[in-house]
Amino acid sequence: MRKSEKQEVVANFQNALESASGLILSGYRGLTVKDMMELRRAITAAGGEMRVVKKTLFFRAVEGRSEAAVQEYMDGPVAVTFVSGDTVAVMKVMDTFAKAHDELEFKGGWIEGDAFDAKQMTAIAKLPPREELLAIFMASLQSPLVKLVGVLQAVPRDLVLTLQALAEKQSGEVPVGA
Q1: Where are the domains of the chain?
Q2: pTM score
Q3: CA atoms of 52 and 39, how far apart (whole Å)
Q4: CA–CA gap between residue 157 and residue 161 (Å, rounded)
Q5: Residues with Cβ < 8 Å from 65, sequence gap 6 or more?
Q6: Which of 22, 24, 125, 149 has fewest C-beta within 10 Å?
């Protein structure tokens, strides 16, 4: 590879890094070309772009940037997935693919300014989707209020039921439930 080609590759990496909200480093040793194409299509559909990188050129591209923290996770053949949207959604696609293909493994990553190792990346990939987490959060905020409303409604409801039972007893009617 000529020097001008190397400079172009580094510039392409730097452009991809500018728009990336996350990087996912993965090992792919043992995957067939067909499997890699399938994985790349799934990643592209989820909002990412997977590239097999030459480490020395990638190191030049991240030099002096916060993304440089991922260099320690780059051992062996590495594919870097640049994500411009929801990084966790792309990680879920990769995790699902990895369940069927043991050759794919997380090596590490960088998400919005923080570096993560392989175990942390796997744990993040197994989190529920963002919308579900927001729903759980909102339900936990609403729960005390719903219980309070139930308690506040119980007092007048019980009073009305007691007065109704007393009125039925005085009029000689047999209550419905008796």
Answers
A1: 3-127, 129-178
A2: 0.70
A3: 12
A4: 6
A5: 17
A6: 149
